[in-house]
Amino acid sequence: VHPNVSQGCQGGCATCSDYNGCLSCKPRLFFVLERIGMKQIGVCLSSCPSGYYGTRYPDINKCAKCKADCDTCFTRNFCTKCKSGFYLYSGKCLEKCPDGLEANNHTMECTSIVHCEASEWSPWSPCTKKGKTCGFKRGNEVRVREIVQHPSARGNPCPATSESRKCIVQRKRCQKEGKGKKNREEKRKKSNKEESKETRQESKGRAARRQNREQRENNNKTQPKKRKAPNKEQHLAPVDTAH
C-alpha cells in the first residue's frame, strides 16, 4: 500500500491512495480489486460485478470471485449461472448432465427428460369414399387424437395422430342435388298446404259450434215454460186394508 493515504476520496471510498485507489469503503458498499494491466485498483460498488459474490464482515464488505466455471454465483460453492460450455445443476456447473437429465441449450441447465403424451382416440368417423357417404360398398373411416405434451430433445417421440381402416356399408344410390332439393321443396309445400287445410277445417268447426250454441239459446228464450204436473198420488183416496 502506498503510504500516501487520503481521507478526502471520491466514488464511495472511505480511505484511498493515489497508487492503489480505494483502501476502504463507506458503509454498505462492497470493496473489490479491479485489474488494470499489471496493476490492481481498489473500487467501492453498491453490488458485486458479474463473476463475484458479496460477503459482509463487521469491518468491511468484500466481493470475492466465483469459481472459474461460474458466470454468477450466490456463494463460492453455489453457482446461479454458468459460463459457456457448462450446464447448471443444483448450483454446480457441469460439462455433462447426470443420467436421467438432459442439457437444455436454451437455458444452459440440466432438466428432466419430458416424453410425448397424446390424448385418447376420437370415435371413428362415418364410412366415406372420395368424400361421399353413398354410392359405394367399401370405403374408409378415420379417427384422430391430439398431442397434449410435446417431448424434450431426449424424450420419446410422439405417435401417429390419425388412423384409417377399411369399412363396408350398405350400398345405396346418391340422390342428385337438384332432385333432392326439388323433393324437399315439394314436401315443404305439401306440408304447408296440409297445415292450411287443417287450420281452415278447425275454423269452420268452431264457427258451426258457435252458431248452434247461439241458436239453442234463442230457442230457449222464445218457448214458454212448461207447468209442472201435479202429483197423482196426492188425489188418490186411501185404501182400507182392514177386513
TrEMBL record:
Residues 116-170 form the Spondin-like TSP1 domain. Keywords: Disulfide bond, Glycoprotein, Heparin-binding, Repeat, Secreted, Sensory transduction, Signal, Wnt signaling pathway. One of its GO terms (biological process) is positive regulation of non-canonical Wnt signaling pathway. Residues 11-110 form the R-spondin Fu-CRD domain. The keyword Nucleotide-binding does not apply. PROSITE patterns: TSP1. SMART domains: FU, TSP1. Residues 175-219 have a biased composition (Basic and acidic residues). Activator of the canonical Wnt signaling pathway by acting as a ligand for LGR4-6 receptors, which acts as a key regulator of angiogenesis. Upon binding to LGR4-6 (LGR4, LGR5 or LGR6), LGR4-6 associate with phosphorylated LRP6 and frizzled receptors that are activated by extracellular Wnt receptors, triggering the canonical Wnt signaling pathway to increase expression of target genes. Also regulates the canonical Wnt/beta-catenin-dependent pathway and non-canonical Wnt signaling by acting as an inhibitor of ZNRF3, an important regulator of the Wnt signaling pathway. Interacts with the extracellular domain of FZD8 and LRP6. It however does not form a ternary complex with FZD8 and LRP6. Interacts with WNT1. Binds heparin. Interacts with LGR4, LGR5 and LGR6. This is R-spondin-3. It comes from Oreotrochilus melanogaster.
